[in-house]
Design brief:
With about 500 residues, the protein is of the alpha+beta class. It folds into three domains: about 5-100, Uridine Diphospho-n-acetylenolpyruvylglucosamine Reductase, domain 2 (2-Layer Sandwich), CATH 3.30.43; about 105-230, Uridine Diphospho-n-acetylenolpyruvylglucosamine Reductase, domain 3; about 235-470, FAD-linked oxidases, C-terminal domain (Vanillyl-alcohol Oxidase, Chain A, domain 3), CATH 3.40.462.10. It has 16 helices and 19 strands. It has helices at about 5-20, 30-35, 55-70, 125-130, 150-155, 250-260, 275-280, 285-290, 300-310, 325-340, 350-355, 355-365, 395-410, 440-460, 475, 480-495; strands spanning about 25, 50, 70-75, 95, 105-110, 115, 135-140, 170-180, 185, 220-230, 230, 235-245, 270-275, 315-320, 345-350, 385-390, 390-395, 420-425, 425-435. Strands 12, 13, 14, 15, 16, 17, 18 and 19 form an eight-stranded antiparallel β-sheet that branches. The protein has a five-stranded antiparallel β-sheet with strand order 5-6-10-8-9. Strands 1-2-4-3 form a four-stranded mixed β-sheet. Helix 1 (about 5-20) runs antiparallel to helix 3 (about 55-70) and helix 13 packs antiparallel against helix 14 (about 440-460). The longest helix has 20 residues, at about 440-460. This is FAD-binding oxidoreductase.
Length: about 500
């Protein structure tokens, strides 16, 4: 769905009257900037950008969009790098930038450890406010930029690395503007009362749990959300193990599993390969020699590992406790557990702090946002970056088979296998980074082909992705069973019959 010129002009005139002159922008520079992304398919130019400052203004905009049949594409902060940034699903949609003016922390409750945020509240803004208040509470951060939005990340099923890693799971209570302009409140917020004391503390209230409808969908615009926070522990102690061989992943996964099934280790395990860590520190030393046509050599990888003191695979986790000394027995137990085969080299907390890529992991476990992993954008020139996010069960043999499969596909397309497996008790999410030169047409084509082949091959083995770049929403929706697709379309028809909210996002369209 695109906006016809006459409908668009009438909509923008009405929106300008509602939001003020600086609430609507369709200058050439703005359209170019909002269309930019890092994906192989190219930029997606919007028709205009609008900036509401309140839920009431969002309601009015949605009603205007229905009246003029103009498609809207809401974003929070637009920092979804590797997945589309703030590009719309299709050219000609009007981007609703919620983060520019709706960036207020509405509440921080230190007794019950939760915050209530608007879409524009970033990880950095929340961290800074918590520090200002005495650093009593800790947020869970992502691999993305500190300027990323907490609300938007949760709705896209983003995750972190600490005990509260499941950002949607640790959200509670939403305010949603539906496509007809009405406001829906989820959880206890659905109670017909002017003062709902449990809105952001009681996740499962009367009736169906509707919150999930607004994740990775286009059924409404979320304008506020409750987010649970962790009391900051007095001390945090990380541990790290380096393994030399690619196929050591099988052993690593089998060792991580019991530590998470028992929840002995409270964090998730970051199991990162050499390029995921070394790639944050500068351009590939072999890129120029082949003009980006070949993957980095085994010798080149070994040289990088030696330079940074890392392994082919690197395991990171952390404990929380009253003091470093109190955690020493737990560290020793983990050392003995990973030391059984003699293949793991232990890197203690103090040593890891001096290794930049491992310091990134320590910050993540500590709830400190950082730019470190954005260095992967420089591994190849041209700024191309796309994320492929499948998962595997926490069975070493299976995880290693997927590693061998995806590594081979990367190499077949002349790209550099760059991945971190984020391991929980039963499941590991594979954060595959496809870095490529976006200014080189051949590399763009190879990056897209690499993504599609991996997605097809893992699906053939019964594995789906957890999130997807905007270029591939339709592709992944087509992989789903027909009843799932039909249910998504049916809900779209019921909640947004005119199809004005982000048509095509996550491949969701109404029935014609």
């Amino acid at each position: 769905m695109d906006a016809r010129t006459s409908d668009l002009n009438a909509f923008l005139a009405a929106a300008r009257s509602l939001l003020g002159e600086d609430g609507v922008n369709h200058s050439e520079e703005t359209l170019r900037r909002y269309g930019e992304n890092t994906l192989p398919g190219g930029d997606v130019r919007p028709a205009a950008v609008i900036y509401p400052d309140s839920t009431a203004q969002v309601q009015a905009i949605v009603r205007l969009a229905n009246e003029h049949r103009v498609p809207l594409y809401p974003v929070s902060t637009g920092n979804n790098i590797g997945l589309g940034s703030r590009s719309a699903s299709a050219p000609g949609q009007v981007v609703v930038d919620l983060g520019r003016r709706m960036n207020r922390i509405l509440e921080i409750n230190e007794t019950l450890a939760y915050a209530v945020v608007e879409p524009g509240v970033t990880y950095q803004a929340m961290y800074d406010e918590l520090v200002r208040r005495g650093n009593k509470l800790m947020l869970d951060v992502t691999s993305g930029p500190p300027q990323g939005g907490m609300l938007g990340n949760a709705l896209d099923k983003g995750a972190g690395y600490g005990p509260y890693f499941d950002h949607f799971g640790f959200s509670c209570g939403m305010e949603v503007v539906l496509a007809n302009g009405e406001i829906l409140r989820t959880g206890d917020g659905a109670l017909d009362s002017p003062d709902v004391s449990n809105w952001h503390t009681s996740k499962y209230s009367f009736g169906p749990i509707l919150d999930g409808l607004f994740t990775q969908s286009n059924y409404g615009i979320v304008t506020r959300m409750g987010i649970w926070l962790l009391p900051r522990p007095p001390a945090i102690r990380s541990f790290h193990f380096a393994y030399d061989d690619d196929d050591d992943l099988a052993e690593i996964v089998d060792l991580c599993r019991p530590l998470k099934l028992s929840n002995f280790v409270p964090t998730l395990f970051r199991v990162a390969n050499d390029l995921y860590l070394c790639g944050t520190e500068g351009e590939s030393p072999e890129y120029r020699a082949s003009g980006g046509k070949r993957s980095i050599s085994a010798e080149g990888r070994r040289a990088l590992r030696a330079k940074h003191g890392l392994g082919a695979w690197n395991v990171s986790g952390a404990f929380y406790g009253p003091s470093p000394a109190a955690m020493d027995p737990m560290i020793e137990r983990v050392r003995a557990h990973f030391g059984q085969s003699g293949r793991a080299r232990y890197i203690p907390h103090e040593e890891a702090q001096a290794i930049a890529p491992l310091a990134i992991a320590i910050n993540a476990f500590s709830g400190v946002p950082g730019h470190g992993e954005l260095g992967l954008l420089k591994w190849r020139p041209g700024g191309g970056n796309s994320w492929f996010l499948p998962g595997t069960p926490m069975i070493g043999k299976v995880a290693n088979e997927f590693q061998q499969l995806c590594r081979g596909i990367y190499e077949e397309h002349g790209l550099d296998y760059t991945v971190m497996n984020v391991c929980s008790a039963r499941f590991a999410r594979g954060l595959h980074v496809l870095g490529f030169n976006r200014e080189d047409e051949d590399e763009r084509r190879r990056a897209e082909a690499c993504y599609r082949k991996m997605a097809e091959e893992v699906a053939r083995r019964g594995v789906y992705v957890g999130r997807a770049p905007v270029d591939f929403h339709e592709f992944h929706m087509a992989q789903a069973i027909a009843p799932f697709r039909d249910a998504c379309a049916g809900i779209k028809n019921a909640l947004d019959p005119n199809g004005i909210l982000a048509p095509g996002r996550y491949g969701i369209h109404g029935h014609s």
